[in-house]
Amino acid sequence: MIFKKSEMKGDYKKSEEKHYDKKVQIRKHSQFSYSDYVLRSSADYYFSLINQQLNTSHNFQILDYGCGTGHRHFEFSNRANHIVGVDISSRSIEIANQQAKKHMLNAEYLIMDCEKMTFADRTFDLILDFGTFSSLDIEQATEELIRVLKKDGIMICIETYGHNPFMKIKRLLNVLCGKRTKWAAKHIMKKHDWELIASKFECCNIDFFHFLVLFLPVFLKILPKALGNKILLLTEKIDSKILKKHFFQFLAFKTVVVLRKPLK
Fold it and tell me: Which fold has domain 5-25+32-262?
């Protein structure tokens, strides 16, 4: 994938901001998606991990990192001391604050560069990331995340994994169709990226999700719902067994990662 010099110098932030401002205008977050449906096991696991943490304490300061419209983590806002969301998309932040006010959430949302946050050092107990890293320079982002995370803090992430050859082709098509920026398509998280981040934390746990289920959406659209659910459940179980084996993990589409206790 070829980059213009301006993108390599940092103008990718402008392209990402423009892309997500436009995206939030044309897609409502409540819209049903077969992709979300077949990827439910990784999302369910991610949210279960957050719930486990919040069951241990209600005093957490939470950072919703690259929050978008904030909707993914709304349910946690009143179970914590406070939740703060940051995103570069001004339109997304406007919607997030409108929703927070409407539903009287214990949350606030700020327009902010995720690579240069204005928070004080060691501010947050828990950082939540739902697919933000591909829009960033991961080295700069990691340094900022470590800076604002408390010494005994936890970061829970769900990110697309960039090695699956079938999905590489799909991402290229998405770039050509304007559904994804060149920067984001090029910077999907890969093994070396997670190794870089893991080296800066005392503990790191990675789980891998979704291979065979990626081929189901076309069938689920035409099958009876009950039969489709059975096939999806069976395929999820097969994927779980396959992706526990190190050799096949490059085929995974999603990773759910828990990082504990930054080393500096």
Answer: Rossmann fold (3.40.50)
d(C-alpha 142, C-alpha 200), whole Å: 9
The predicted model gives 7-26 an average pLDDT of: 60
- In degrees to the nearest 10, what's the CA dihedral of 73, 192, 3, 142? 50
Label residue 86 by pLDDT band (50, 70, 90): very high
Judge whether 112 and 140 are in contact, CB under 8 Å. Answer: no
The first and second tokens of residue 245, run together, are 């084996």
CB 86 within 8 A of CB 109: yes
Would you say residue 28 has pLDDT above 80?
Answer: no
Alpha carbon distance, N-terminus to C-terminus of the chain: 35
CA 69 to chain centre: 13
How many residues in total does the chain contain? Answer: 264
Tokens 């406007």 label which residue? Answer: 94
Task: Provide the token pair at 105.
Answer: 């959430």
Q: Taking the C-alpha atoms of 117, 74, 99 and 114 in order, what is their torsion angle to the nearest 10 degrees?
A: 20
Q: How far apart are CA 108 and CA 94, in angstroms?
A: 11
Pairing of strands 107-111, 61-65: unpaired
Angle (nearest 5°) at CA 25 between 23 and 28:
85
Residues facing residue 260 across a β-bridge: 154, 203
Considering the chain, what is the average pLDDT of its residues? Answer: 89
Q: How far apart are CA 78 and CA 153, in angstroms?
A: 19
In the chain, which ranges are E strands? Answer: 61-65, 82-87, 107-111, 124-130, 149-160, 201-209, 254-262
